[in-house]
Design the sequence.
């Protein structure tokens, strides 16, 4: 009996879906036709090519940092967590608290090196790079330390503390024992850009989030909120 009801429900949903699709396509200009992709409870659109949709308590995203390889896990995970909070719970306030806690953890050094790793592919021979970015520097260091790096290799590196320019402080993850990541870099160049893309639309400007990031003491953070 239960199986029969389930089958009838699925058949009715399929029928209504096709009926709705036929109605939409009938109203479109000649030569245009839409296809059914899925049913999503909620969606968050930054632009038409950058969005996140909620499907069965999972996020389906396109064009956002959480689906890109060249962003550190701490940035991608934070963006995903605030998107889930907004899409599932509808709570910008909870999203704000998530950001606050992540900022505190990064500032205090309480995030593992593995969560700070940036992955970048070497797309050409190292000698052909005119702009020497962090991934190139990390690749050069790996070669100097006996590793084989060639075109197509994936470089995994962390930006560590130091007084040199950022690119020169890119260290292969294999060589980071005893080193510390640079909190300021990860806040300003990874986490805040990723979350600002979402929070800007909810009235929390990049400037306000940056101000939050600059408040290191717990008392200052509480006062800000």
Sequence:
């Amino acid at each position: 009996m239960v199986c029969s009801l389930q089958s009838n429900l699925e058949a009715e949903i399929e029928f209504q879906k096709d009926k709705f699709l036929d109605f939409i396509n009938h109203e479109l200009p000649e030569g245009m036709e839409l296809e059914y992709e899925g049913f999503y409870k909620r969606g968050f659109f930054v632009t038409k090519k950058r969005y996140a949709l909620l499907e069965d308590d999972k996020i389906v995203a396109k064009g956002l940092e959480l689906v890109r390889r060249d962003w550190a896990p701490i940035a991608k995970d934070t963006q995903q967590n605030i998107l889930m909070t907004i899409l599932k719970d509808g709570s910008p306030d909870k999203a704000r608290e998530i950001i606050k806690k992540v900022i505190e953890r990064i500032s205090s050094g309480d995030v593992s090196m593995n969560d700070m790793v940036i992955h970048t592919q070497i797309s050409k021979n190292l000698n052909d790079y005119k702009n020497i970015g962090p991934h190139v520097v990390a690749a050069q260091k790996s070669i100097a330390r006996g590793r084989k790096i060639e075109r197509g290799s994936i470089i995994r590196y962390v930006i560590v503390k130091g007084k040199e320019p950022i690119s020169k402080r890119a260290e292969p993850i294999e060589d980071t024992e005893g080193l510390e990541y640079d909190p300021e870099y990860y806040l300003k160049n990874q986490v805040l850009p990723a979350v600002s893309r979402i929070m800007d639309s909810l009235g929390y400007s990049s400037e306000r989030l940056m101000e939050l990031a600059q408040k290191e003491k717990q008392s200052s953070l509480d006062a800000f909120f």
